[in-house]
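The instructor's notes for this session suggest beginning with a concrete chain rather than abstract definitions. Hand out the sequence below and ask the class to guess, before any prediction is shown, which regions might be ordered.
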Amino acid sequence: MENIAMRDAFGAALVEIGKTNDKLMVLDADVSSSTKTGLFGKAYPDRFFNMGVAEANMVDVAAGMATVGYRPVVSAFAIFLALKATDQIRNVVCYNNLNVIIGGGYSGLSDSFDGASHQSITDIAIMRAFPNLTVLCPADANDVEAALRQALEIDGPVYIRMCRNPGPVLDKNPLTIGKADTLVEGDDVTIGACGLTVPMALEAAALLAEKGVKAEVLDMASIKPLDREAVLASVEKTGCFLSVEEHSIHGGLGGAVSELLAKNKPVPMDFVGVEDCFTESGPYDLLMEKYGISSSAIIEKAQALVASKS
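After discussion, reveal the predicted structure:
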């Protein structure tokens, strides 16, 4: 299985789309060599803008571009877009429902060695609370290109959350806004995952099957809008739900699903993600394991959910 980093796919997709879409503008906050938007800058220098370490101003400039018919993409680390440009994203982009794409790179724990100040574990919670904003968390490199192409076709702002590190390119349907993709069918427990935790969920489901537990795995890249029908249909079969994400357990994918199930079909539920704490510096894989984002954690919590039904 080929491993490709989402940031590489993002840069390549921008270049390819730029060939036929002359309204595409790319703005970066002085991290273009990291986010790979520099590839677009090299190909189309007249449509690329390095705004410096000024994320809030960058978003305002992009909003202005959107008001005159351009399709701007702003790119920076997810943590700085979600926190340093929060006011501008909310009051300028979302309030006016402008066609601005927000590309949040280095999300979750993937900026591992820079520690808690750079690790974005609250961005989904922040972004999905804003009216009008579509929130997407691609599972692999192919999903990144699909997300970008669809975001450029719809009306309104879109947040695309991307991991820094390489991940497997999965044999699955590409991301579709508003839809969850059922990757494995089962009737014992529903596992809903997004981002680079989707391969973990698939690995966990295969190991659970060996233990006699049939897990249904949903790729939930479209966090907002959420595929309500897919979630409700799945828990109707399984009677429980486990959310898996590279994010705090508060307010992210798990929060979105909790809100849906609390109103429509309350079932036993648990969460795989970062507990209520700040994270730290270290190797990416070791951090993921330490903070409980792993196939083994998925298996343990899935088994406990199944047991809770009996």
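Then share the key points. The radius of gyration is 19 Å. The longest strand covers residues 241-248.
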